[in-house]
Write a structure and sequence with these properties.
Strand content: 25-35%
Strand order of the largest sheet: 3-4-9-6-8-7
Shape: globular
Number of strands: 12
Structural class: alpha+beta
Number of helices: 4
Radius of gyration: 17 Å
Distance between the termini: 12 Å
Largest sheet: 6 strands, mixed, barrel
Length: about 220
């Protein structure tokens, strides 16, 4: 659910997507990794779908420690939102591959508040949760995700799509299965150009062996 008006390009094309739990009155539930891959690969109504998992990261090693509100995101997240970095860049596809160095993108507010708008911060390493993360970009001042009551300040790549791919490569294709780590709580997407003119909305997709069935508002 969009709690605040989005501040990125083409907000009328942005959607949020979820799955429901039939054993709990069809209440929204964390999206099963294999379901997300089905939606991403088969849903023709959307130009791009990406997932995010809200979390927090402990920042240490510079002045006072602090807990940063963060989100792990899947490949194509910023492209789905139509957002580019104001400084540096957003994530490259290869940075989602297993074994690559951890990287982060910061919001403009955090960059100014905690790092004094240091123009040389891009390329430097921050210690988050005891691990080195390289800063690759800073988002524009206008960026507001609007998907939670408290905005995220740090974005990083996650393990979600790697786990989902492993599910699909195995002998079991359990669409209700949740991953042991990084189940996405929010899936965001961008409508295909053929759907222009519709307002930003929420959508429930029911995926699985039978395919993908969008249920628009």
């Amino acid at each position: 659910m969009l709690l605040q008006p989005p501040s990125f390009a083409g907000p009328e094309r942005i959607v949020t997507v979820w799955q429901t739990d039939p054993q709990n009155g069809n209440q929204p539930a964390d999206v099963a990794p294999a379901n997300f891959l089905d939606w991403r690969d088969q849903a023709q109504s959307y130009e791009q779908l990406a997932a995010m998992e809200p979390t927090s990261l402990d920042f240490t090693g510079r002045d006072e420690p602090e807990v940063f509100l963060a989100s792990f995101v899947s490949e194509g997240f910023f492209q789905a939102l139509g957002v580019t970095a104001a400084h540096g860049r957003t994530f490259l596809p290869e940075e989602f591959a297993r074994g690559n160095r951890p990287v982060v993108v910061l919001t403009d507010g955090l960059w100014r508040r905690r790092f004094g708008a240091d123009p040389d911060l891009v390329g430097r390493v921050l210690r988050l949760d005891g691990q080195p993360y390289t800063v690759v970009g800073v988002l524009p001042p206008s960026f507001r995700l609007g998907l939670a009551t408290r905005e995220r300040e740090v974005f990083s790549v996650n393990c979600f799509c790697r786990f989902a791919t492993a599910i699909l490569a195995g002998s079991t294709r359990r669409r209700g299965q949740r991953g042991p780590r990084c189940p996405p709580r929010v899936v965001v997407g961008r409508d295909a150009p053929s759907r222009l003119g519709r307002k930003a909305h929420n959508c429930n997709l029911s995926g699985g062996a039978g395919g993908v069935s969008p249920e628009g508002p």
